[in-house]
Fold this protein.
Amino acid sequence: MFVAFAFAGAAHALQIVDDRGVTITLPTAPQRIVSLLPSLAETVCALDQCQRLVGVDRYSVYPESLRKLPQVGGGLDPNIEAIVALRPDVVLMSKSSRAGARLEALGLKVVALEPKTHADVRRVTLKIGQLLEVPDAQRIWRAIDAGVSAAAQSLPAYARGVRVYFEVNQGPYAASESSFIGETLTRLGVKNVVPGALGPFPKLNPEFVVRANPDLIMIGQRSVDALQTRPGWQSIRALRERRVCDFPADQADVLVRPGPRMAEAARLMARCLESKAPGAKP
């Protein structure tokens, strides 16, 4: 997976090509890591290497041990001085972050990875495993894949084919069929009302959702109160029939992060469908 080892005497250098197409060379596997993306920090920990993390972004709160680490801002607005002060061997970050060039200009090694789909999560997991020289990183993906399949098999027949609208943030920004969330919904056997052609997480005209008229809405608790105030939304079937799953913040974090907890996300969606889909017992 784009990782090569070049031997020079007893030591060896490690090379990895990140999602920018940039080749990063490290003298050995990194022991001091700063992560600027929660899903990447979670992946490091899922590989049993949490102890290598010396700093994280402000949104990395799982597992609990990450809360004790120095926070270095957000992925889009990191504290460069704080990162440098931690003397990381490598900084893991999103490809979309603009901080990479600044960090590299200061002599830091940057690996940019962008998990957006199920295939991306598998690829990024394997790449981080190889970067850290952890054998059998594939086990993480096997657990995710098996967990999503089990969640799908647990669903009653009445939940199949339900038309779902999944809102990731106010705007409204939705998860379309082409997002990792949309792919999970597809595997659960339901219909996403937001087509993949709009992009993974499109900002929608609220009238789009009114016209789509979903059977069920999945949304974070922080956004649910605004639904009834949106023009025309009172006519949406899901709101008329109170078929809305509003997830508390800790569950919302699980749902919107493409990483090791995607099987847990599938189980949360499955429980929502079992309890709120048309046909469910009141």
